[in-house]
Design a protein that fits this description.
The complex is a heterodimer of chains A (113) and B (159). With 113 residues, chain A is mainly α. Chain A has helices at residues 2-17, 22-31, 37-60, 67-89, 93-112. Chain A is globular. In chain B, 81% of the residues lie in helices and 0% in strands. Chain B has helices at residues 2-20, 25-34, 40-65, 70-93, 96-129, 142-147, 149-157. Chain B starts with a helix and ends with a helix. The model of chain B is unreliable at 130-159 (pLDDT under 50). The chains are: A mainly alpha (113), B mainly alpha (159). At the A-B interface, α1, α2, α3, α4 and α5 of A face α1, α2, α3, α4 and α5 of B.
């Protein structure tokens, strides 16, 4: 039940602000569903795949997707993601929470100003 | 020059996305708008495609680490697609600045909750398990767990 709510909230806010689902999914998995940091972040990443794929298709049919730019950013980012997950695996859970809290605070301030 | 900058930013965004389990759109969208001169809609559309390689590579690694809860991911992902429709309807019905402020306050509240929870679990672990059980979190010095909090984590999150 909590998972359904999380999905709904994630999709809702990602459509509203284009902030992506992860920023909503990760804290809710930790705070509402009682996940530890690492499973929460891994599961969030997996769940975003579906949102991004459906979103891409619906924009692509309207011709809004710039494929070259997506590859230019996305391919190096895939390499980065491997490094990032390796780094996460070596970081203690509470540190990940603090880091994520700082990220959220930055986003909150960015949205306010 | 923009190309090199984009590759470097892509690398950083992916690292960040993998580290925290977010797609990287948070960084992709402003990069596409400010550096590569796309409009907001095109940037959000292109960002969604750029997220896919991050998700595939990151999830593959996380699956190998045994961290992915597939059933939960499938439920959240599927429901979120419906949530997107709801978001679009709401965006058309309510003023954007109000929504933005509400969301910002919510995000700040959640940030505080998250930090508070991490703070209290750290103390709990410290007192309940004692020193002998600290070995599992091998890469972190026990002393750093309590006092390394916000400032250092903050530095890392703003590249």
């Amino acid at each position: 039940m909590a998972l359904v709510l999380i999905g709904l909230v994630a999709g809702f806010f990602s459509a509203l602000f284009g902030v992506g689902g992860g920023i909503v999914v990760v804290p809710l998995l930790i705070l509402l569903a009682g996940f530890d940091e690492r499973p929460a972040m891994a599961t969030s990443l997996a769940s975003i795949g579906l949102i991004a794929a459906v979103g891409t298709v619906s924009y692509a049919v309207r011709g809004d997707v710039h494929y070259g730019y997506a590859l230019l950013l996305g391919l190096p980012a895939a390499v980065g993601a491997i490094a990032g997950t390796a780094l996460q695996q070596r970081t203690a859970g509470p540190m990940l929470s603090y880091g994520f809290a700082a990220l959220l605070a930055a986003v909150g301030i960015w949205l306010l100003v | 020059m923009e190309i090199v900058a984009a590759i470097v930013i892509g690398l950083l965004a992916g690292t960040f996305g993998g580290l925290f389990g977010i797609g990287g759109g948070l960084i992709f969208v402003p990069t596409l708008v400010l550096l590569l001169d796309l409009g907001q809609v095109d940037a959000e559309a292109t960002s969604l495609l750029a997220i896919l390689p991050v998700v595939v590579a990151g999830t593959w690694r996380q699956h190998l680490y045994g961290n992915v809860r597939w059933r939960a991911a499938a439920i959240i992902g599927t429901v979120a697609v419906a949530g997107v429709e709801l978001g679009v309807l709401t965006a058309n019905a309510l003023p954007e600045t109000t929504l933005r402020r509400l969301f910002a306050i919510l995000v700040l509240f959640v940030a505080a909750q998250l930090a508070w929870r991490a703070h209290s679990t750290t103390h709990e672990r410290g007192s309940r398990r004692g020193r002998s059980r600290r070995t599992p979190s091998r890469s972190v010095r026990p002393a750093a767990e309590t006092d390394a909090g916000e400032p250092r984590a903050g530095d890392r999150s703003r590249p």
